[in-house]
Design brief:
Number of domains: 2
Order of helices and strands: HHHHHHHEE
GO biological process, one term: membrane organization
CATH superfamily of the largest domain: Arfaptin homology (AH) domain/BAR domain
Number of strands: 2
InterPro entries: AH/BAR_dom_sf (IPR027267), BAR_dom (IPR004148), Endophilin_SH3RF (IPR050384), SH3-like_dom_sf (IPR036028), SH3_domain (IPR001452)
Family: Belongs to the endophilin family.
Distance between the termini: 90 Å
Strand content: under 5%
Largest sheet: 2 strands, parallel
Helix content: 55-70%
Number of helices: 7
Shape: rod-shaped
Pfam families: BAR
Strand order of the largest sheet: 1-2
Protein name: Endophilin-B1
Radius of gyration: 36 Å
């Protein structure tokens, strides 16, 4: 009734002080952006909405989420299985198996990153929304009730005509004013705690950035190691696969002949297939990808990784 009268302009409305209003606005803003960041981080860590819903229900039921292979691990297993099928002794099969192992390593790193982010980043954000902010809203609602009681007491005092009624109204106003002031102080203290929340979330953000840095650094190192194993490097062959611009001492993968030896300008006559590679006069390397038995006296028998 009092709220309706205030809306109609028929009753006095007690205004909150500007500081408390600013604190309330900041709390609402914090809640809004915390929800948004939380949601988008969940999408980043698990893009599949069906899986997110499933994990949500498991969490609410307080049950352990079943372990499932992530996309990198699934790809890695497929590569390993196909490499086994083609044969680890073949260039393609061997490369597939090495790529598969690397993909599974990346999948493991991703799993660790997700777990770390969930504990150190998502959980604190969710705790604020489901804990501290709900407490703030509960006390804010009580403050609204106390304010309406105070407004009603003020209106009652204004309408009191008799001395006895006026004295009773004044006493009631004194009590409701005290209760309102007490509730306003409780609400203010809770709202000022949002500053501590910001500081805590800043530390959580730093933890999240560190987890991302570790994850991407691991992935990069895994891929660099894989490149070395495969003998592939950022510099690429020209369209005829005969010319290559690589600095001195760099390793080059030669797909037509898996040979590993240092060749100088003085050894250009050893094999015609390397004539273009050696035209620059710079030393070259090649690494053997897999074992090879010479088919004739014009070929070399080689072991993998020579």
């Amino acid at each position: 009734m009092m709220f309706t009268e205030e809306k109609l302009g028929q009753a006095e409305k007690t205004e909150l002080d500007a500081h408390l209003e600013n604190l309330l606005s900041r709390a609402e803003c914090t809640k809004h952006w915390t929800e948004k960041i939380l949601k988008q981080t969940e999408v980043l860590l698990q893009p599949n909405p069906n899986v997110r819903i499933e994990e949500f229900f498991y969490e609410k039921l307080d049950k352990k989420v079943p372990t499932r292979m992530n996309n990198h691990e699934l790809l890695g297993q497929s590569m390993i299985d196909s490499g086994t099928e083609f044969g680890p002794g073949t260039a393609y099969g061997n490369a597939l198996m090495k790529c598969g192992e690397t993909e599974k390593q990346i999948g493991g790193a991703e799993r660790e990153f997700i777990q770390s982010s969930a504990i150190n980043f998502l959980t604190p954000f969710r705790n604020f929304l489901e804990g501290d902010f709900k407490t703030i809203m509960k006390e804010r609602k009580l403050l609204q009730i106390k304010r309406l009681d105070l407004d009603a007491a003020k209106t009652k005092l204004k309408k009191a005509k008799m001395a006895e009624a006026r004295a009773a109204a004044e006493q009631e106003l004194k009590v409701t004013q005290s209760e309102f002031d007490r509730q306003a102080e409780i609400t203010r203290l809770l709202l000022e705690g949002v500053s501590s929340t910001h500081a805590h979330h800043l530390r959580c953000l730093n933890d999240f950035v560190e987890a991302q840095t570790t994850y991407y650094a691991q992935c990069y190192q895994y891929m660099v190691d894989l490149q070395k194993q495969l003998g592939s490097f950022p510099s690429s062959f020209s369209s005829n696969n005969n010319q290559c611009s690589v600095g001195a001492g760099a390793s080059v993968s030669v797909p037509t002949l898996p040979v590993s030896s240092v060749l100088s300008a003085s050894s250009r006559q050893t094999h015609s297939g390397f004539s273009e590679l050696l035209s620059s006069g710079v030393s070259r390397k090649a690494r053997v990808l897999y074992d090879y038995d010479a088919a004739s006296s014009n070929e070399l028998s080689l072991l993998a990784d020579e």
